[in-house]
T-complex protein 1 subunit delta (Dunaliella salina), 504 residues
Amino acid sequence: MPAPKQGELLKGSAKKKDVRSSNIESAKAVADAVRTSLGPRGMDKMIAAPNGDVIITNDGATILQRMTVTQPAAKMLVELSKSQDVVAGDGTTSVVVVCGALLKKCQDLLDRGVHPTIVSDAFNMAAQKACEVLEQVSVSVDLDDRASLVRAATTSLSSKVVSQYSSLLSPMAVDCVLRVMDPARPNMLDLRDIKVLPKSGGTVDDSELIDGLVFDQKAAKAAGGPIKVEKAKIALIQFCISPPKTDLENNVIISDYSQMDRVYKEERNYTLGLVKKIKASGCNVLLIQKSILRDATTELSLHYLAKAKIMVVRDIERDDIEFISKTLNCLPIAHVNHFKPEKLGTADLVEEVEVGKGRVVKITGIANKGKTATVLLRGSNKLVLGEAERSLHDALCVIRCLVNKRFLIAGGASSEMEINLALSNWAKSLGGMESICVRAFAEALEVVPYTLAENAGLNPIQGTITNMLEENVVQPMLVTSSAVTLATECVRMILKIDDIVPVR
Ligand SMILES: Nc1ncnc2c1ncn2[C@@H]1O[C@H](COP(=O)(O)OP(=O)(O)OP(=O)(O)O)[C@@H](O)[C@H]1O
Ligand SMILES: [Mg+2]
């Protein structure tokens, strides 16, 4: 290890202070970077990747995830917004902004000589109290109260580029979640049961919630097979309709024509055997999982399948198998010997249709449809479509939050101010350092109203006051309570760090 230079020989405590304040500074810089995108009038960020990809987004988690951050403490803020994304799905900008404001307050307190441990403990208490306050001001919401759910989804969409379409997207998000929710076990809600298929062409207005299933893959029509099947019997298969291949190192050497004929005949018989077994089960639509080992179909097998009037959709992703089998109420078939009629799904119509610039395969009128939802999302270009997808995800998460914890609070910073008032009052009953720290915590939350007003181009001091509940700006309690809790946790972690130890 090289000897430390003269200038680096700081006294122990001075160095610790140095590491702490440089950590705080870096983390604050990250928070400042996303501050301008908070709220309905917040700005969007254009993220340009070195490979030329461009993303336009307002989503805090997405912005931070794409940002090149190297300082370890700054990275903690990136993680912070990620955890908010996992817990609540919305409020990923707020959590970082609040964290930045809390850190600023910490810096002031530390400069005034308060010990980090005292700050950390007081903040912990304050955060718990803040959650209690939120519970007091929250109003409970019933899942039958569709209007309230739609209002909450609209609030989350109001800050997005696609907010003008929220009259379409909000009810859609609510319907999706209610459709996949199991009333007996509402807490087991899995957003993977909602499939969003982005397809460019048209506008977001053309998006629809499909009563059925849609694939991006097209029907195979090289051999003239059907592209529309009524009264469909659908099989989801995980094997290939092509002759098996030899191992990589093996060669089959053919020396004369009769042998070649035999190989060809063998292939024909094998393929024909497969197709016959499939046809015998009554199947008329085949969904074939993508294979990396060999071709899912050959020219020959497509020809036979077309003759048997079986529609073929290839390249189904492995990840989609579960979703498809759940939706169609069918079982994936791994080998032709297991091809039984009871494993097939039934639908009124399977059809390849034109959507925008491309084509999709649509399955409608599914018998015994499972609890899934499919949204065909439309947008004029890739940028809009990407942001629409992220925004819809936020709205879905908001509804999920409400399913898990059925309380709504008023948005537009009114709940943050409620906490501010309650904590300031409470601080009066505390003594000494604690009181100062709790008051600092309360003041830090003022960053939300300030920022919302500032981003709207208003003077934060002269902002108008209205009743946010009457303005229909409501959001799930879980979003704000987890933002406050997670931000505090992150601040406490940063406070407790007094040294950075690089290792190789
Ligand atoms: N119509 C409105 N009027 C006033 N404030 C609003 C309105 N709609 C939303 N807000 C407020 O805007 C804030 C949310 O802004 P935004 O959606 O940009 O950030 P976020 O939810 O923290 O992060 P993200 O959506 O990127 O995950 C909340 O404090 C919310 O109460
Ligand atoms: Mg939001």
About this structure: The mean pLDDT is 89. Residues 212-246+255-379 form a domain with the GroEL fold (CATH 3.50.7.10). The chain has two domains: 7-140+407-495, 212-246+255-379.
